[in-house]
Amino acid sequence: MLLPAITSAPFSFSSLRLTNPISPHPRYVAVSISAQASPANSSYSVSDRDLESRGFVLHRTVSDLNLDHLNSVFAAVGFPKRDPDKIRVALENTDALLWIQYGKTQRPVAFARATGDGVFNAIIWDVVVDPSFQGLGLGKAVIERIIEDLLRKGISNIALYSEPRVLGFYRPLGFVADPDGIRGMVYSRKKKKN
């Protein structure tokens, strides 16, 4: 279920504490955050004001999100195209989301969402930035803010799935792969050989 927009208040990344994650392929990268969000907006790598001045608009609800345009961003980064009806259901079952719209085109250019139990655990999914807009800090902007939104809800064990080629993007944001050598498993149906 999507909640109404939450006013932003970032946290200090120095307050992160590692926990034992699950690490299948694609790699599962996790972090547990024990501190509460701090009230200052200074810890964002790109401020809301800076994003606005560059023509970007932050959204925390699905209002005005064109699912066909979002699907185009998914496809542009190599995700499979998804059935818009299934995307809609997934978003209805999302606990937190953040997307960035480019004002000139009115299209989404960055997106992330999280699901979880609403109390202890959350997993961040579908982190994408349109390739034409990569390198501008938009990926960091969505991750920092979605983590903050989860922390403000009291969720302290935050994990995400990531392709191995982009693990380096998440490490500076406090995520680690396989802390303490812990690995996990994901259920996968294999076709039986006849």
Automatic annotation (TrEMBL):
Residues 57-193 form the N-acetyltransferase domain. GO terms for cellular component: chloroplast; cytoplasm; nucleus. The keyword Nucleotide-binding does not apply. InterPro entries: Acyl_CoA_acyltransferase, GNAT_dom, NSI-like. Gene3D superfamilies: 3.40.630.30. GO terms for molecular function: aralkylamine N-acetyltransferase activity; N-acetyltransferase activity. Keywords: Acyltransferase, Transferase. GO terms for biological process: melatonin biosynthetic process. SUPFAM superfamilies: Acyl-CoA N-acyltransferases (Nat) (SSF55729). Pfam families: Acetyltransf_1. Belongs to the acetyltransferase family. This is N-acetyltransferase domain-containing protein.
